[in-house]
Amino acid sequence: MTDLSSTDAVNAAMEAEFRLLDPEVRSSPEQLAQLLHPDFQECGTSGRLWDRDSVIAALTSRDAPAPRTITTSRMRGVELAPGVVHLTFDTESGGQRAHRSSLWRLTGDSWLLYFHQGTLFDDDQGTTIENRRSAGG
What we know:
alpha+beta; six-stranded mixed β-sheet; disordered C terminus; single chain; 5 helices; globular
């Protein structure tokens, strides 16, 4: 695998991640389905475990809050194997900040999100809320 193809893979996964973070995409079951792998799983910032169907239903239900703008920072990626990219980044939305980790798989001609995890944090150094509590915070 050459550096150029690895860079192309990371860039393609990043583009797919940015599409997934778009409020318009997050409110469309069809667009979400185009970006989530059939075996998708997520460990959410709440600690809840999600699969493809449950996350699409939660994001697009009539009772779902309107999608918020999500600000991203520090996104970087690495191709772990041909067709598998790991992205890490931070998000801020509605006053909540989270460290995020996504695994994207090239499936056919499309990059699909296979796994995602988010961990809330609350200070500028990026200390997780759980670590601060453990330290007596």
